[in-house]
């Protein structure tokens, strides 16, 4: 390779710029920074200019003078005196072009003495005007008084104190003080080599000869960097030279290296160690989550360089995704109005800027603070957005990052919480499995408000730097770990005094070696690589199989680009169906982000040869992980840590290329410089001839061979061809592979059974005998789908599509449709093999029809034999359907009035094909598997599919797994064992799919017709409820379509009580999901109508699942057909046992995991047939003397209404109750006076709410609503004692009732009291909007 071949297309730096004060134009206030006349002239911002930049123009990167000046001096032009700190400050910045490309800038701000007398006089005049305004008592525009006292007319005392404290720093005395002005030297580069740029600018400033002596001119170093240093090619290292820290020293050699993707990660020269040391692991993960979900992220710090470092590090961790929105890591003061943009952004705000500290925080407007993530880097502190989902495997991810920090001995921030359970600014991670982080109300009722951005800014003015925000949890100091504390307690109990033991003797700590700058940089690069690989590894495992759900276009590039905004490119519903339930809240929101859409677009564009670097890096690692995990462990793996060894950059390695050291460009340079020149010698910095090349190869440099020589590949290939492979060896390998697949099928089905049955038995109290794996159900079913895909892909003759299983199903469906003799065969649609299968089916069908005709002609001779043969043989499906009505009419007790659904394979396929959420073949196949598994028909369907041997032979080789009969039968047998448990993998996976529901209303024969307009509303576990659906007249069965309701829970049915005969006696209601076949019965056996029963025109019914729905002739549960009437009186001991069982069931339900709570709805435990409301109804009915009043049957609600009247009368007579012990019949103890009055008010208020909302509810419905609401508000057990003390209770209840007998009343109060520990969340169908 010749040296000219090593040249690159871009230089290290495009421009060198000098920004500062233009003495010709004088002092100009920076109007873009706002009105700053209310502050001292030294605190104001003035207008700076680009004094010079070299070269004049670069064609590939046009120089933007305004943006460069604004970002080199982000706070504007600042003045200082010798009382201030004059240390140079370095920071970097980035500018995003209109085409989304970026270039980087590096600025060194230093202060030089102002020797221009006009500038000093102007500053002195401004200072005198400011002092005069303060002394005269006039408030300058925008000035805020710090106290209510009137200002003195003399010079403020703060200016007369010691010269280095308080406001005296802002006072400029022209006779005593020296005036300094800010100046910036900057580099504009295409790549962010931060370390080299910082060393160059800082040493260029230091190496400027301040006195006569040796040293190069600044033009020499600038020329060398601009024109002689290129950017190395990927995988190459380049040695260049930067200025020394002292003028008399030699130039310092520095090595830069360009990574070589996809083996290595893209360039990141910013130190992740600094970010983690400042923020901590937990805060970084929280911030990372906000950036992934494209929230508005605002960073705050007093250091411009920290703002840029955190922004760049956070964006780099998004690999393979890219931030595609507003990105301004350093927001200059003139651009503060950008914060009001209603778009996602990542911006950095300087804390000490004048617009924030002087004008006040209210001068900064934000569009929406609910979606804002505010990060204070200096504290550190974070304010999270509302309803932020948790990152998948967050706890394990944080542990892995902490392990990396311990490995590299990274110091953590002192304020970092030591436990994950510690709340951080209103966001608690106590429950790591919760989908959302709470930010609204606490269970105790205390209000917790999300602090606004302006609140946080105002805290800065009134509290120290390390103080906690008002009304926010104070951070805890690092505590002793619990595990170490327990070990210490055990040692103490043995009699050993651990206080005398030296900690260094027991566990010596590893002291960190002090590193120089070069070693520290190399260590930082190694830490960067490890952390970035860890973050990338998370995405690799989450999106390991994402390619299966990408919808590739069937059009050319131009057509796709013109219409891609309206096209769906990713099957989101099918991808989410494979993810664990607890991860779906985050992933469902992340799939809607722009960065994910960009990744999918890049994946599609790769088909036309346009490869994205980040995508190549990502896919390179996905291939490695797939090879390491194997095909069998893709979907069953949980959290996997980074294995290491991939993408590690060769930090600190040798350089293959180097450039010449800088030489003097000025023939007669100045002897010394009093200040950094405002303009350099333009002739010395003129662009050289582009044909020259200063690169040279370093002697004895080792070149890395990236590609394997062709000779080696050909030699290895020829050796492989020379090895003879016998047919016996091929058969043995195939046999081994088939046995491996069968063994994997057995292990997966067994694991799924153990997991499901173990969960069910643990709920029943036998969990100690079952080993629960803890893998979520959706993950294991996704693994089963992967296994089925591999089984169907084995031995394929011709691969068609991404899913071999779905293509087999489609071919089977086409054969079934073509088997109809009335439908012609389309030869252009079928493949030759498929067409031959169709012809064979036609021939078989014609032969069977001929045999049937002959049999009918022979049977027509003897009708009696015909009848007997029909009874002994199977009828066709059409005959069974025609005879089903006759059989049901003959039956005296129809078990299932709903017509059974077809159990055919094609019926389920048509239901899956009707789902609009699914876009890919893989998605259709997985939806079909989930549906068949939920219906317990998977084994039957696959047996039916594989029974067509003609189709099987046409698609698969003889050695395929599906054509091995013995292994195939064992495989179907293992799938059959999954019918022993209930799965809801289809119902719970596709919540947005629109499904048909069939409703069958069973009125009683006494009053089966009504003239009123009836309606129905159904609720499910997915949180969805249908609106009021009108019931068609003259029919009791109808079908409606609605978004997936999930497992049905409650049903509300009613009418408007119109017409001549509105009364309606309802027996029960059946509702069936027409896709899954789940049937629910809602027992009622009550009247609907005013003036009958309890006068209710609508009732709430609770669902009971018909478990034997898949068996058409199985009897229904007796409780569903004959619900026991609420008027049945039971013994007190029986009622006590019933209430105790109900309370125990509710307590257990609240302690279950979220995935198990769906199986038993809280509504069923409260309002079901044996729920708590029914049991309390029995308790209130015990000893109820309703028949003694005028011969009329009173309801419990009548008693509640009379108690309310008595409570109201007692509240109206409050003045008299102070003198009397008995008020309105209510007797009480004086100590309980205030408590009882509070309960009276709550009781009356709740009764009024129920009466006002439930106008159409009957008395029993109002009682049910009252009990549910009082349980939710934790009032029920507190109301029992005041109710028992009323005169109404003595009149309407016997002495042996629960409300009058002390022992029973105490039991009732104590058994309900434990429910106060839980937040009972009721469905909207129960609360009626209260």
UniProtKB/TrEMBL annotation:
InterPro entries: cDENN_dom (IPR001194), dDENN_dom (IPR005112), DEN5A/B (IPR047278), DENN_C (IPR043153), PLAT/LH2_dom (IPR001024), PLAT/LH2_dom_sf (IPR036392), Run_dom (IPR004012), Run_dom_sf (IPR037213)
Entry-linked Pfam families: dDENN (PF03455), DENN (PF02141), PLAT (PF01477), RUN (PF02759), uDENN (PF03456)
Cellular compartments per GO CC: membrane
Predominant subcellular localization, coarse grouping: membrane
Molecular-function annotations in GO: guanyl-nucleotide exchange factor activity; small GTPase binding
UDENN domain: residues covered: 30-610
Ranges where the PLAT domain occurs: 995-1102
Protein name per UniProt: DENN domain-containing protein 5B
